[in-house]
Amino acid sequence: KTPPAQPRSVFSIQIVEKNAEPEMTLLTYLRRKLCLTGTKLGCAEGGCGACTVMVSRFHSNRNAIVHQAVNACLAPICSLHHCAVTTVEGIGSVASKVHPVQERIAKAHGSQCGFCTPGIVMSMYALLRNNPQPMMRDIEEAFQGMMRPMIYNMILFSLMCRGKAGACYMITGQKEEKGDSTNSVQQLFDPSEFMPLDPTQEIIFPPELMSLSKQPLRELRFIGERMQWIQPSSLKELLQLKAEYPAAKLVVGNTEVGIEMKYKNQFYPLILAPAFIDELNSIQYTENGIVFGASVTLTLLGNVLHGEVNKLPSYKTEVFQAILRQLHWFAGQQIRNVAAIGGNIMTASPISDLNPVFMAAGCKLTLMSKGKINIFFLNLGSKVVCYRKTALKPEEILLSIEIPYTRKYFSAFKQSPRKEDDIAIVTCGMNVVFWEGSNIVQDIQLSYGGMASTTVLATTTRSQLIGRQWDEEMLQDACSYLTEEMTLSPSAPGGMVAYRRTLTISLFFKFFLTVQQTLNVNPCTGVCHHGGCGYKLWRTPLHAAVPPGQNMDDVIGRPIMHLSAVKQATGEAVYCDDIPCYKNELYLALVTSTKPHAYIKSIDTTDAMAVPGVVTFVCAKDIPGSNKTGPVVYDETVLADEKVTCVGHIVGAIVADTPAHAQRAAKAVRISYQELQAVIITIQDAIANESFYQPTRTIERGDLTQGFQESDNILQGEIHIGGQEHFYLETNCTLAVPRGEDGEMELFVSTQSTAKTQALVAKALGVPASHIVCRVKRMGGGFGGKETRSTILSTIVAVAAHKVKRAVRCMLDRDEDMLVSGGRHPFFGRYKVGFKKNGKVMALDVTYYSNAGNSMDLSLSIMERALLHMDNCYNIPHVRGTGYICRTNLPSNTAFRGFGGPQGMMVAESWINDVALSCGLPAEQVRELNLYKQGEYTPFNQCLEQFTIDRCWRECMNISDFHQRKANVEQHRWTKRGLSIIPTKFGISFTAAGALVHIYTDGSVLLTHGGTEMGQGLHTKMVQVASRTLEIPSTKIFISETSTNTVPNTSPTAASASSDLNGMAVYNACKTLLQRLEPYKAKNPKGFWEDWVCRQTYFDRVNLSANGFYKTPDLGYDFETNSGHPFNYFSYGVAVSEVEIDCLTGSHKNLHTSIVMDVGKSLNPALDIGQVEGAFMQGVGLFTLEELRYSSQGYLYTRGPGMYKIPAFGDIPTELKVSLLRDAPNEKAIFSSKAVGEPPLFLAASVFYAIKDAITAARAESGLIGPFRLDSPATPERIRNACEDKFTKLCPPPEPGTYTPWDVRV
Question: In the UniProt entry, which residues are flagged as the active site (predicted)?
Answer without folding.
Answer: 1238 (proton acceptor)
